[in-house]
Amino acid sequence: MLAVLLQPELSVLYIAFKIRPMPILFRFAFASLAFAFGSILSVTLAQDENYGGFPYNPDSDNSGTIEVNDLLIFLPYYGENFSVNGIVPIEYGGTNANSATAARDSLGLGSVQDSVIGATAYTWMNGSARILQRFAQGFSASATGSFAHASGINVTASGAYSNAQNRLTTASATCSSAQGEGTTASGTASHAQGMISSATALTAHAEGYNTEATANYSHSEGYGTSAESTAAHAQGYLTTASGLYSHAEGRQNEASGNSSHAQGQASTASGDIAHAEGFNCTASGYASHAGGFESTASGLYSRAIGRSSIASASNAFASGFGVIADQENSAVVGMYNETDQPGMLLVVGNGSSSNDRSNAFTVNGSGDAHVTGNALIGGDINVGGHEVAAVLTMLLSTVDSLQNTVTALQNQIELLNGGD
């Protein structure tokens, strides 16, 4: 009696049989037939299995040792070319991939790997990356210039070697850079950063909120500032530097003269090389200086400081409250002096208002001095080489002596009259 037990997963055929007594030759032939049948069946089953890309499995039953059954699996392939087809698993010495890129990912050798987390696709990078041409990253990001870089949302880098990043920024010139929100860098090598700032000229720089640098080498920063001339600099709040090489800083100041400087609040330096500082001061004369509160220096090389002081003549100096230096080379101090007095060099005003002006002391070009009021002198006074006090003392002594002489003569005259 013959029983055949087949276990395909092990590619093993078990044959159990019970043989009644028979000749030895018949037994041998029957056993050979059974062995051949089992071998053919094992080989057939083995050819249907997948060995991870290899044509056969040297350890077909995964027993850890190569046995007779394993050799039977090998026999159909004896003498044939050894070829690997399909994907070879990593555990069999393969890469578990069908391309070089997939192999790098599978083996963990790639710098860039793709993965999906939830419904979102991600690309992961390990190590450094070198981009040899343009680079655009983000939503509606455009990098069309040579070696340009754009990153963010609605950004454009169209200039060669330009850089645009963040949101709604544009870098359209060579080597330009725009960053922040709504900024524009359209000048060569210009830089705009912040929000709604614009650098439109060669190497111009605008930063902050709504600032503009529109001239070559200009710089604006802060809030609503504007640098409008070559190498001009505007900073602070709503300041304007429109003169060549001018500088405006602070709040609502304007430097419109060449090389002028305005600082403080609401001050204007409109003269070349002029300087205005303080509140609502104006330096409109060439090389003039106005400082303090609402002071004006309109004369050439003039200076006005204090409160509401005016230096309107060349080389004039006004200092105090409401004083006016309207004569060339004059110096006026004090408060509310008299005006329109030709030839005055030094004036001390002692008026009370713009409608009530007066002088306490003046010196004119001839050297004449005028004092209104008393002059109290604590020291010596020398006139023509003579000390005035000593001369006066001597004169008083002489007067006293003459008075005594006159009195004596008067007494003699009276005696003579009485004797008559």
Could you name the key traits of this structure?
420 residues; alpha/beta; 18-stranded mixed beta sheet; 14-stranded parallel beta sheet; 38 strands
The radius of gyration over CA amounts to 55 Å
Class by alpha and beta content = alpha/beta
Q: What's the total number of strands?
A: 38
Overall mean pLDDT stands at 85
Q: How many helices?
A: 4
What proportion of the residues form beta strands (DSSP E)?
25-35%
Segments where pLDDT lies below 50 for 5+ residues? 1-19, 41-48
Largest sheet: 18 strands, mixed
Oligomer: single chain
How far apart are the termini? 211 Å
The helix fraction, in percent, is 10-25%
Overall shape: rod-shaped
Structure at a glance:
With 420 residues, the chain is of the alpha/beta class.
Walkthrough of the structure:
This protein has 420 residues and is an alpha/beta fold. Among the domains are: 2-77, no CATH class; 296-372, no CATH class; 387-415. It is 17% helix and 32% strand. The chain has four helices and 38 strands. The protein has an 18-stranded mixed beta sheet, with no helix packed on it. Strands 6-8-10-12-14-16-18-20-22-24-26-28-30-32 form a 14-stranded parallel beta sheet, with no helix packed on it. Strands 1-2 form a two-stranded antiparallel sheet. Strand 34 (344-350) and strand 35 form a beta hairpin. The longest helix has 32 residues, at 388-419. It is rod-shaped. The N and C termini lie far apart (211 Å). Residues 1-19 and 41-48 have low confidence and may be disordered.
